[in-house]
Amino acid sequence: MNLYRGMEFNLRSVSTEAKERDFDVIIIGAGAAGFSAAVYASRSGLSAVILDKNVAGGLTAEAPLVENYLGFKSIVGSDLAKNFAEHASEYASIREGVEVKSVKKGDGGFIVDTSDGEYHSKYIIITTGTTHKHLGVKGEAEYFGKGVSYCSTCDGYLFKNKNVVTIGGGNSGAIAAISMSEYVKNATIVEYMPRYMCENAYIEEIKKRKIPYIMNAQVTEIVGDGKKVTGVKYKDRSSGEEKTLPADGVFVYVGLIPQTSFLKDSGVKLDERGYIIVDGRQRTNVPGIYAAGDVTSGSFAQIASAVGDGCKAALSLYSDTISSKK
């Protein structure tokens, strides 16, 4: 299964031979925060590039529907991400499929080691966001791409008129189940906690659509026939009883983890969960390195707040460069 199916944005590309390697600012992560940072950095007169190991869009592109971003009553996440990417590409080069391996201090700035070679910059803005947490149960890895997915927007339609189970009943899991209920045979939500874990608006929609929401359930295994998923085993945490739900597709929404492993040797301070610690102006503890969006400690993990953080990071960076020249 292609996690990013249908999300090619036709952004301008640069041939390997002609690629510039030196910039005022390198933005790591092509999501909402990164796009915003690129626009504001460029408009401040700074040369900028956005690097991302995947395709542009971030988690915004995976949202089945976005209903809380100002200016759009309702918009498909991939469409909003496309708008962001096309706008940002007018200001900065967006280089997809470039994985950042490390960030280190160099002469007059930073050296960014990537799968595409070394890049150099005076400043860094980290906007790598988060990625999906895995359950860690038997069958999850074995059946990834054979029924197990972390993106209903990408893979949901593969299960039209079939049975799907969403593991995790928070907002993301609820939205996924609600969206897929339009075309699957049955959509069921399995939640570890003994109560609804999503917002009231989603609870009402779940009840309206009669989507089963199984609470107090611990998933123990994703089962299959060796070629594809056939079901989900879980334990009723109240009775201890083991049960199995038939499933053709399993969508895992059990939380997110920050994408910060490449910062190991950078000196950037992280909190106990691995998120980047920043001050009120998006500065990290390392002069010249800023961070914005969901990857930062205390983030609200919203598209709107990520866009604001990206703007703030770029403007703070520019302000700091002006101050340092006085």
TrEMBL record:
InterPro entries found in the cross-reference section = FAD/NAD-bd_sf, FAD/NAD-binding_dom, Ferredoxin-NADP_redctase_2
Q: Among its keywords, does the record have Oxidoreductase?
A: yes
> Which UniProt keywords are given for this protein, alphabetically ordered?
Flavoprotein, Oxidoreductase
**MF terms in GO:** oxidoreductase activity
Q: Does the keyword Oxidoreductase apply?
A: yes
Q: Where is the FAD/NAD(P)-binding domain?
A: 23-310
Protein name, UniProt field: Thioredoxin reductase
Question: Organism, per UniProt?
Answer: Thermoplasma volcanium (strain ATCC 51530 / DSM 4299 / JCM 9571 / NBRC 15438 / GSS1)
